[in-house]
Here is the input.
Amino acid sequence: MELIQNYFPNLTDVQKEQFNQLFDLYLDWNSNINVVSRKDIDELYLRHVLHSLGIAKVVGFKEGTTILDVGTGGGFPGIPLAILYPNCQFHLVDSINKKLKVVNAVAESLGLTNVKTSHKRAEDINETFDFVVSRAVTAMPTFVGWVKNKVNKKSKHDLKNGILYLKGGDLTEELSNFPKATLYNLSDCFKEDFFDTKKVVHLPIKYRG
Here is the structure.
């Protein structure tokens, strides 16, 4: 929890308490439904919560922003971002319903009213959003195919509407067909070794009506 406060010192008391509750909630649920790998649960704040919040180091979501989290799994990056941005709306989708059971329970326990979930594939969501976020659920060309029609036309941020993708490693080949993609190194934001190869990829998506 101190890790989160070090990098996000302006949290409200409510946000601090919500972030503080995450460990016990996930530890409890993980004993029934494995949404965080067993070796990672002790590193929840570093490998999952802070990693998710890397997106907030690239763009600060304005009030009313709508965000789709594709392949959210146990709620990452959606849940930490929903805590950080209570005035934004988050739609978390996953094709595995038991994982969403955990997400819904965590959101309810935290009192998050800005989170909704759907047991669907991304392609079957019939809404548009300002940003689509995810943590490396598939290669970028496939991901773009899933969400290319899900992005709002009008941008309200300096960063154009589109994809914000948490990925690691060498992405040169994967992004070779996306010249407009911008890579943000999380090692520039967070000093922990875990982030040495971690990035946020921003890919603006042109609206397709």
Notes: The longest strand covers residues 162-168. DSSP finds six helices and seven strands in the chain.
